[in-house]
C-alpha cells in the first residue's frame, strides 16, 4: 500500500488501495490505533512515514536525512488523505493536520547499510511525540538477534553447539 500511496497524485488510483484501507479502518476501530506507519523502500533506502492521529500531524523518519524521498512522502500523505476521505469508517479530519514535518530529534545512521534496521527501530520506539534514543550498541544487539534467529528456530534440527563449532573451524 505504501508504494501505491507514494505515486504522484495525478496518477494515483484510489481503488488500488481501497481494500487495504477498509481493513485498516476495521483494525483502527477495534484497537484504537493512534499511529499509522508506512514504510517505503526505494533503491535500498528505507523511510518511515507516520500518520500521527495522536498529535494530528504527519511525521517522517529518514535515517540518512538526505531528502531523497521527500516527494514520495508528500505524495503518500496527499494520497492517504484522498483515500481516507472516501472511506466512511475513517472519521479523522486529516485536513486539520500540520502540513510541515515537525522538527523531531531522532537517531540517524552513520553507515549506508543500516536503513532497514533504523526503520525497524523507528517503528518500535516512536511513541507519537518523541523518538527514544538508541545507540550503536542497540544496533549491534539487533544484528545479533537477527543472526541468531535461524540458529535457534524450532524448525532448525541442527544442534546450535555444532553450528558454533563449524563456524569456529571455518
From TrEMBL:
The Ubiquitin-like protease family profile domain is annotated at: 1-126
Q: Show the GO MF annotations.
A: cysteine-type peptidase activity
| Family to which this protein belongs | Belongs to the peptidase C48 family.
Sorted alphabetically, which keywords does the UniProt record give?
Hydrolase, Protease
Question: Some GO term, biological process aspect, for this entry: which one?
Answer: proteolysis
Fetch the SUPFAM superfamilies from UniProt: Cysteine proteinases
UniProt-recorded name of the protein: Ubiquitin-like protease family profile domain-containing protein
Gene3D superfamilies found in the cross-reference section: Adenoviral Proteinase, Chain A
Q: Which InterPro entries match?
A: Papain-like_cys_pep_sf, Peptidase_C48_C
Which Pfam families does the entry mention? Peptidase_C48
Domain of life per record: Eukaryota
